Amino acid sequence: MRSRATAYPLVAVLGWGVMFPILASALNRVDPLNLTTARYLLAAVVLVAILLFREGAGALRHGGRAREVLVLGVVGFAGFNLLTNLALEHAAPQQISLFVATTPVITQLVRWARDGVRPKPLLLALSLVALLGVGLVITRGSLAGLGQFGLGGLMMIGAVLGWGIYTHGASRFGEWSPLRFTTLTALAGTAAMLALSIGADAVGWQHAPGAADLVAVTPQLAYAVLVGAVISVLAWNTGVQRLGAANAALFMNLVPVTTFAVQIVRGYRPEPVELVGAAITIAALIAANLAARPRTASLPRPGAVTDPIAVTDPAAVSAR
């Protein structure tokens, strides 16, 4: 039974890993903010339709928690996805995916800052090792590459931090279904992205895409919406419910592996130092996840929201 349950998080991380190169190709035709807004406008429609079908119109009510939903939606969905798409203009998809894989560790650090729950010293040490591996990949082992790290890397640090805050905040919504929390925060984040996109177009910071541009990126948008923002999220939430968050979180380390594989198939030839850096990062993150797991844990009951990680979409990541 557990072997079947592993298929859910596996589907999710494979979907997210493939998405980074796809989004990077779409940025050749559409500005990052407009692309992010278009993606989540479509995804929000799909999520609302599913929520109405499964839980009814009452699930769209905020229950007196509109402010929390708004803040988490803006910080998580809008902040994470916008910064990720901006970072893709300055760093390669395989580099960006390594940052996304640090989400479980970053969430532990956010919990420490907000709740005073100190992570294990080993976790902090492994986090630094993981960042060292990311640095090797981005700079390719040369100090001359620090400029590239400063552009794309700093954006991704902000993106993952925002997603960590979102993930931690989800722990206060245990009485909501993952679908309801994801949909309502996605709506809040989409509204913020839409307002920002309209303003940026008006002042000339970016240019509204024409019909030809939107048609050109239709395949990328279709994948990012249906696979990245809907199927992968629902598969991830199901996997967390059946396996537990600690076990499911280990699959996050397959995101950069998948992205590297896609880029290699597309003709990219990584240098040895990049492979070493990626191996260091993935090994450190696996060890960090194992270190953060409780000594004794039982499988959660079906339908239970056991951990804020259950409602995250790390590619929405760019993704989401």
Structure description:
The chain is an all-alpha fold. Helix content is 72%, strand content 0%. α3 crosses α11 (218-243), α4 (66-87) runs antiparallel to α8 and α7 runs antiparallel to α14 (272-292). The radius of gyration is 19 Å and the shape is globular.
List keywords for this structure.
320 residues; 14 helices; mainly alpha; disordered C terminus; globular
Short description:
This protein has helices at residues 2-5, 7-26, 32-55, 66-87, 93-100, 103-115, 121-139, 146-169, 178-203, 211-216, 218-243, 245-249, 254-265, 272-292.
How many strands, which pairing sense, and closed or not: the largest β-sheet? Answer: none
Overall form = globular
Q: State the separation between the terminal residues, measured CA to CA.
A: 29 Å
Q: Structural class per helix/strand content?
A: mainly alpha
Compute the number of helices: 14
- The level of helicity is over 70%
What share of the residues does DSSP label as strand, in percent? under 5%
- Our Rg estimate from Cα atoms comes to 19 Å
Total beta strands:
0
The residue ranges in which pLDDT falls below 50 over 5 or more consecutive positions are: 296-320
- Series of secondary-structure elements, N-terminal to C-terminal: HHHHHHHHHHHHHH
The protein's oligomeric status is single chain
Averaging pLDDT over every residue, what do you get?
Answer: 79
